[in-house]
Structures are given as structure tokens and as C-alpha cells.
Prior knowledge:
Elements: E1 6-10, H1 33-40, H2 60-63, E2 72-76, E3 79-81, E4 91-92, E5 115-121, E6 137-142, E7 155-160, E8 187-189, E9 192-196, H3 205-213, H4 220-225, E10 231-233, E11 253-259, H5 268-271, H6 280-283, E12 297-302, E13 311-315
Antiparallel strand pairs: 1-7, 2-9, 2-10, 3-8, 4-5, 4-8, 5-6, 6-7, 10-11, 11-12, 12-13
Protein name: TIGR02996 domain-containing protein
Amino acid sequence: MNRRLFLASAPFLLGGCRDTRPAALAPPSVEDSQTRLARAAAFRVPSSAVRTTPKAPVDVVEQFPELKALLKVAVRLHPRFGDEPTPTESKLGGQFLWPAGEEWPRCPEYQIPMQPLLQLRLENAPAHFPFRPKTDLFQLFWTPKATKNVGPPHLTAIWRKIPPAIGPLAPPPVTDGADLGYVPLPCRFFIERVAEFPPVELMPAQMRTKVEVWKPPVDYATHLSTAPGTKAGGWPARADVTATCLTCVRPMDYLLTVDSCEWTAVTKARWKPAEDPDEDGYRCAAGLRLGRSDAAAYQIYICRRCEKWPLRAVMA
């Protein structure tokens, strides 16, 4: 039985944008598969662990009560290397719930298997995260490299209903022909829900003016607005990049972010989880290298006006 319920494919997004993200720490180099796994083993995190974001140094709502209406709850996924979760659990990379009889998604440009990127259960997702009716598992695959014109990778999304019994599963594809910087190490998510406020560019004009002239003790954009790292829901960190649906030519909705690392030299005082040592093995646990620095990330957008719910990725 083919358990795949829905599939959405997305071409790449052309064009670039200026990089206004904070200065990054020096990222680890991309290594071969066995070296990556051996290196990650020194930073294993037990499944019983938690990750906790420090309290914001300033109460934004106390300063601007009208911002409460713009608060969104994001899910910081905190991917960490350790014992791989089962195929039905939320995770980054590794073995997904993919029945052995189903055809594996392939990149339309390179004709290589797409890599399993992110799997998210309904109960771990933020409120209003889009799930197809009668489904409870979201799966995201991508081409394990940038496109030939240096654009974002192609995407494929699957929404499934987790079955009561699991039959034989297809193994993850081999990484021949892949850029290992786009192939995540198998990581467990340590789910944490955090409050986010919009970038000033996405605020109503009057509110934006107030925040722009405000002189808090920390920077609003890097310390009080949006969380860095891989996350679902909330606000996009980069408001100056957008995505337009190639089918209906209307603006798409922000869905999630896949980030090379969780914090930078600028953001670590605010967003580094209290339980993490300041080491690359935790900061960049998934082994992703999505750009020229570990400050590179992809913001993923979705269009639910179109029947197939197409996706697009934008370098952030």
C-alpha cells in the first residue's frame, strides 16, 4: 500500500540578496561521511536532555504593549546528535518513515536522490503549522546541493498519516554526488517553544517608527526579535527576502528555517541554550554548511492557495 498522501515539489528561487546576518564564528569544515560521524560522536546528547533558551534581557511587551498582538510562538527544534529517533519521530536527517515500495523522490535537475531533511510530527509543530487533513507527519526533502546557477536546492514535501504498524522501510539514499554540507547528520530534536516578535520591517508603520528610535541595552534584531537556528513557525529572521508562488504569483507564507548553526558570536549571549557548552559540536550539531559561513540558512515558504501547496527556499 502506498502510504504517501500528498507531495509538493518546488523549483529553486533565483537571485540573491545582501547578507545582513550577524558575524559568524569560524565554521567546521565539511568532512567525508565517516569522519563527520566520528567527530559528532564526541558531542552526543542523550534523549532525556533538554535545551532551554535564556530569558530575554528586556521585556518587549512591557515596553510596547501593542507588540503583544504581534507575538508568535516559534518551535526551536534544537537538533543534536545522539541516538537516532525512530522513523516515526520528529528529527533532522536519518531514517524517515518511507515505505520500501514507494518511489524515492529525485532531484529534477541533477537526477540524484533527494536527501531526507526534516520530519515533524503534528504534536511537535507550532500552532497553525500547515498539515493536510487527516495527516500528522510532515516530511521535507531537498536536493543535497545548491542548484547549478547557485540557487537554493529543490524541495519536496510529504504529508502522511502515521500508521499503527510499520512495515519495511526504504533506507536513506547514498550520498554519492551530494554536497555533504547539505546532508544533515541524524539528529534528535529537543523541542522548545519560544516567543518571537517581528523584524521591524514587518511591523505596522507607526509601531516600526517607535521601535527604530528605541534605545534598548541590547540590539532588537539579534536579541529580542527572532530566534536563530533551525526552527518551525514564528517570524522569519530575514524580512528583506520573500518568496512568490510560481503557480499563482502571490506572496507565500513563511513555514520554517533550516540553519547551519544555532548561534553566532553576536547572538550566543541571548540564544545559546543554557545546557550547551560553547563548542561547534553542539552549535553546529547537524554538520550542515549551507553557505560561505555558518550564518547561512534557508527560509522555507509555502503557498496553501494552490492545490499542491508548493514550497520555495530562500537563502537567508
